[in-house]
Amino acid sequence: xxxxxxxxxxxxxxxxxxxxxxxxxxxxxxxxxxxxxxxxxxxxxxxxxxxxxxxxxxxxxxxxxxxxxxxxxxxxxxxxxxxxxxxxxxxxxxxxxxxxxxxxxxxxxxxxxxxxxxxxxxxxxxxxxxxxxxxxxxxxxxxxxxxxxxxxxxxxxxxxxxxxxxxxxxxxxxxxxxxxxxxxxxxxxxxxxxxxxxxxxxxxxxxxxxxxxxxxxxxxxxxxxxxxxxxxxxxxxxxxxxxxx
Length: 245
Fold this sequence. Notes:
By secondary structure, this protein is of the alpha+beta class. It is built from 7 helices and 10 strands.
């Protein structure tokens, strides 16, 4: 029996929130090439905006022009390495940009094959049959302490160190991303988001908001508005990718 072709649709919303003067998040996607990326920049002045934009542009450019002969996880690793080098070398050339970097969470899809890319504490979730699952692990100090059993989840949420990330794109000459494959089913909904969303609203709230039958644009907007009403202390970016046949 022939395997059904999986088609993807996407939508995204990014907002500076209620407290930050500018938006250091960036996102980009190409449904045609199956590439979806969200980045959350960091650094003084406009450095965070530069880092996140550089990462999105470089990853989209390289993954959209990839050779069909190359295996996707290999291409993904090369693209992330090139983005890391672009940000790191830019910061080395301009002292005002010293130390800039960005998180990155992304999807690279081909039919039912979905590769998840992750550096930092931006997240990828999957909603399947109205059940939400976090696919990525945060590269943050408190999350590593939780995984080691040295800190409880509630302690992590209250910790003054909760903003400290242990891996970022562009802050070092080399970085090790998480790249892993999951299989998509028709109806799956993937959420890529910056921590401006997940620090304001719980996973159960996200699950409830994504479970409402409305357009992807409306669901993105509802997530962002809920995070803003909850405080909006940081920039908020949501990118939704739906698998269908």
